[in-house]
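Hi there,

I know you've been waiting on this one. I reran it after we fixed the sequence typo, so this is the corrected version. Both the input and the resulting structure follow.
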Amino acid sequence: MLAVMRGAADAEAQIFATFELGTAAGQPDAAAVFGSQLITLRNNQGRAGELAEVQRANVDAMPHIPSWRAVLARLYSETDQLEQAREQVDILRANRFDHPRNSTWPAYMAVLSDAVRDLDDSSAAAVLYERLRPVATQVYVTSGINLCGGSFGLYAGMLAACLHRWDDAERHFADALAMNERLGARPYVVRTRRAWASMLLDRNALGDAARARDLIAAGRAEAETLGMAREIVRFERLAERIASS
């Protein structure tokens, strides 16, 4: 969990070693933990599409677990398949994004927030933001020792930005960046800088472009160090927005 959160070079080796240990010990959730950690790693690497068939199979096999559908929606948005992402979000919207407050709720909220922001779905963001806002200053952890996605403030900030609640978004991003730096959650420092830069360009107030440029430069440099291919593409798109404005 910590290796993935920190973007460690040996994170993949640790995931496989943990799976082997869990399997040998007869842990019944070893496969689920392995899958969720590998999905997170591949997403951070910009290789989410490699696990598309596995994630679709999870949704088909476990339709009663809405977090798997949220993960699939995020996969589609991460790979620029926005119509497919919207289809999955709409299925979850049918019951007002209801999800029990259990060990998979944090992952559900985080990955669904990613997809909703990519879709610029303000109606979904309005529902999710009110549920996420009370825990925005907390750390996103699932199943105790399974996944850690840094600060919930990143996801709250994205939802607030989708709603054009600029002051709230700024506060969440500032909190998230500070917490993720303190945690050493380097992939989530990258994502926070990218999401914050995007919000500044959307708001387009005096000085926002210059601030966004600084966030893009720092975020892209870290993304290149960590090998976050998808985030590099996103930073390039943001830089193109500034260049064409």
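Quick highlight: The mean pLDDT is 96.

Best,
R. S.
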